[in-house]
Write a structure and sequence with these properties.
Arc Repressor Mutant, subunit A, six-stranded mixed sheet, D-Maltodextrin-Binding Protein, domain 2, five-stranded mixed sheet
Length: 332
């Protein structure tokens, strides 16, 4: 049994020469105990076939080139897709329809914070994530277990005043955080420092009437309903990105290409008819369809981002360390 499991693990690893994959994917693929899989991976590491490193409680495997150049079998037919609680992904119903036609079943997992969605992808808890591009770039050098499709939507954010002067509230390492940095750098607001919120619920429970909030649709809709006043939006701040699709290396090149093409088609479908998937998307997220209707005019398709866009984002959180070219490796 042990030799059979070892051969099964090696057979899977042969598909990923020169790539990083989450160790958790190997556990799932062979349907064996974590301890036994870890023991065999330890043996392969000693033999120089792989290397492993720990990031918190997670482990990432690097498969050395030369173990094989074979394209992986498409083992995964059920794709777990992480998204953020947001009105942004109105193209999702079309995307799900496209991948179903290619033989994939999708499970949607909704996160309350973008960085958590991206971390789940990096560590193998989901197979794909549509999450804020800054967070995808930020985590990439640590994990390198995924690649990014540089297409998506822009817009869908506002900066609101809660009343009196105070801090600027933002989500952490996200498009909102990038906007926060741009606002303060350009002196667009006289904010008294920065305070981070970890979920939409946290900012909606805020009792203070002091400060500003940078947030996304539908969160700003509710804040406006409660009396917050818009002071800046996407028409006054040129931000060319928001969330992008990132795909786990464990999917393999063939599956990643199919999913990328489906994603691009879904974006084009949204551009032609933004309101088409509202009812379906409402049922997936719990966001009221009447609120989603207002999002169709708040988001717009953007042209594919180029490497200079990556450099601009990276400069905001990592101006010198690590060297900037590593972030360009993340792009498919």
């Amino acid at each position: 049994m042990g030799s059979l499991l070892r051969e099964k693990i090696i057979d899977i690893l042969r598909s990923y020469g020169g790539s990083y994959v989450p160790q958790s994917y190997i556990h799932r693929a062979v349907d064996a105990s974590k301890s036994r899989v870890s023991e065999i991976l330890g043996e392969l590491e000693k033999e120089g076939l792989i290397s492993r490193r720990s990031i918190g409680r997670s482990r990432v495997i690097y498969v050395y080139p030369g173990i094989s150049e074979r394209e992986p079998k498409e083992r995964m037919r059920k794709i777990r897709i992480g998204i953020v609680f947001s009105s942004e992904y109105l193209f999702l119903p079309s995307f799900l329809k496209q991948i179903k036609a290619k033989g994939y079943e999708a499970e949607i997992i909704i996160f309350r914070e973008g960085l958590k969605a991206t971390k789940a992808l990096a560590e193998g808890a989901v197979d794909a994530a549509i999450s804020p591009l800054p967070g995808q770039l930020y985590l990439y050098p640590m994990y390198r277990t995924y690649s990014i499709v540089l297409n998506g939507l822009s817009g869908g954010f506002k900066v609101l005043s809660l009343g009196e002067p105070g801090p600027l509230y933002s989500s952490l390492i996200s498009t909102m955080d990038f906007i926060r940095n741009a606002i303060l750098s350009r002196k667009e607001l006289e904010a008294e420092g920065t305070s981070y919120y970890r979920s939409p619920e946290e900012i909606l429970k805020l009792k203070s009437r002091k400060g500003f909030v940078v947030t996304w649709h539908p969160i700003y809709i509710e804040l406006e309903r409660r009396g917050a006043k818009p002071v800046l939006d996407s028409s006054s701040l040129e931000i060319r990105f928001c969330c992008t699709l990132a795909l786990s290396n464990a999917l393999g090149k063939r599956a990643k290409l199919k999913l990328s093409k489906s994603y691009l088609r879904a974006l084009r479908d949204f551009e032609r008819d933004p309101g088409k998937g509202i009812e379906h998307y409402s049922s997936l997220t719990g966001i009221d369809a009447s609120i989603l209707k207002s999002a169709t005019s708040d988001y717009r398709i953007v042209d594919p981002l180029d490497p200079s866009s990556i450099d601009e984002i990276v400069e905001s959180f990592a101006p010198r360390i690590p060297e900037g070219n590593i972030y360009r490796e993340a792009v498919d």
